[in-house]
Amino acid sequence: MPTQAKAAVIDEITERFQKSSAAVLTEYRGLTVAQLTQLRRSLGEGSSYAVVKNTLTKRAAEEVGFSDLGPLLNGPTAIAFIEGEPVNAAKAIRDFARANPLLVVKGGVVDGRTVSPAEITRLADVEPREVLLAKLAGAMKGNLTKAAGLFQAPLAQVARLAAALQEKKPAEAAPSGDTAAEAEAPAADDAAADSTPDTDSAAADDAASTD
Fold it and tell me: N or C, fewer C-beta in 10 Å, the chain?
């Protein structure tokens, strides 16, 4: 390939990395053209799936700060460049790989961070936005300002917040036996105070003011 043509390909791949919310590197050895076309269509509007040359892609990745992808660029490589919500595309790739085991996910980039195949799988397992927002609405206990902002947040961000809140709730659940006993003691004292004559209460007030 002439040098000028190589430079054009590098520029194109660089631009795709820059414009995409995620990029998933795969090995497609053994898959047919029809199967690759099916995968490309499943990624959704605005996304693409293309076979790339490893050497040129390495140079493009280095230009955008993704040099960590270098070791993944060996063997037959095709990249899914995702525009929009990366969770939906991750689900499409996961489902396609289950039906077509010859597709191997090598890793990729999500929101500017390099990720492993396991992280892409976890991203694909994120619950639907409606379910996550319902959980967050309950956890926020009516804080409408915060909840409203989440409707426009990336689904991956919503999922992380939902997981953090779920982990926090058990820690704030029922108090331990000692704490419960301490909590009950003031309540018993209050009940006793309510049952004493008013003169005792007034005397206690006088003592408090003297202190």
Answer: C
